Amino acid sequence: MTPRIVSLLPSATEIVCALGLEHALVGRSHECDFPPGVERLPVCTAPKAGGNNTRDIHENITAILQHDLSVYSVDAERLRDLRPTHIVTQIQCEVCAVSLRDVEAALASWSDARPKIVALNPQSLDDVFGDIRHTADSVGATAAGENVIHSMRQRLDSIAAVTRDLPEKPRVATIEWMER
Prior knowledge:
CATH class of the domain at 5-123: Alpha Beta
Strand content: 5-15%
Largest sheet: 4 strands, parallel
CATH architecture of the domain at 5-123: 3-Layer(aba) Sandwich
Strand order of the largest sheet: 2-1-5-6
CATH superfamily of the domain at 5-123: Nitrogenase molybdenum iron protein domain
Structural class: alpha/beta
Low-confidence stretches: none
Radius of gyration: 18 Å
Number of helices: 6
CATH topology of the domain at 5-123: Rossmann fold
């Protein structure tokens, strides 16, 4: 049986699609927009805070967290209508994306069969590979998961080989949430 997957995390949407299961996606978060085509899916989440810049967003989120545990809302009714067999979410950061607690609260009133929750929590590159494997195993795509991981490791090895002998190594800075 083909799974019915709701992805509540952009990276999870990319994992599901990399596994060859884009056709199994039935819903997404408000942030999931890649690969092209997923924006056609019903949106199951919304932010409770907004703003014109990171300072405004930070202030709005801080205000919300004073009286609420979550900065996102999950559309429980839409989830029920979509009848997913799997919901992929994360447990890493409750400000960055919908949390496991948000998903569990949305499913709390379900008396019928609940979807399997696949919670991702990468802390390292190896954990990313582990989350790909976990997602693949959960939706019955173990072989595809191993192929994705193998391909990614090959790409990383080829980048390492090309850059190994460079006299000046590339440097990358990642900056997030610039204003406080």
